[in-house]
Request: fold
Amino acid sequence: MRVTRRLMTGVPRLPEAAGDGGGELPGEGPVLRVVMIGDSAAAGVGAATQEEALPGQVAAALAALTGRAVSWRVVARSGATARWIRDSLLDRLTDPTRGWEPDLVLVVVGANDALRLRRPAAFRRDVAALVSAIRHLLGRDVPVMLVGLPPVHRFPALPLWARWPLGAYARRLDAQLRRVAARGAGVSHLPVGALPISPAAGLAADRFHPSPAGHRAWGRSVAASVATVLELR
Reply:
């Protein structure tokens, strides 16, 4: 925590996106139910509403790409690590009052583990345990897709001396996400790809989280990967 406080000194604390935790998009065929669970990126920090944040943008792009109706839900908290998500957020994955359960789970995690210098092997175990806990809760081997870490070394909010070392550390943790995906049936790793990372084209006022344009670009990238995986399945 001491390392995190030092790195984030002076970075404005932006609120999570406002919203009801999900939405519905029209389309043909059976409804695709998607839940995104994770940290501040999943919580929509940098955007005003969940619809214009990463979860809503993924859902909108998925509906456009697949032509299917999409029912989406977000379960996220700013500052969350893989272990904290497993311990504190899983009970919100479903909505028993509506009989709602996800057809697939998107996991957005790793940036806070990198800031806390969580050891790669420990992070891998945390993520593997999270995947197992998700499936245990749902009672079936629902597809789990691990969203790759963003290019941390390009975030101008971080001090210059920390950007490249921390970026390299984030890439090490992203490699652990790939290892979890490679070893788990029905688990996929979705690389981030090329994203606009600049205060003018992709970053919010804190110069660390995505702006609405950044959320939109990232959401389209994630949705394209998800649609590809679904088609191959």
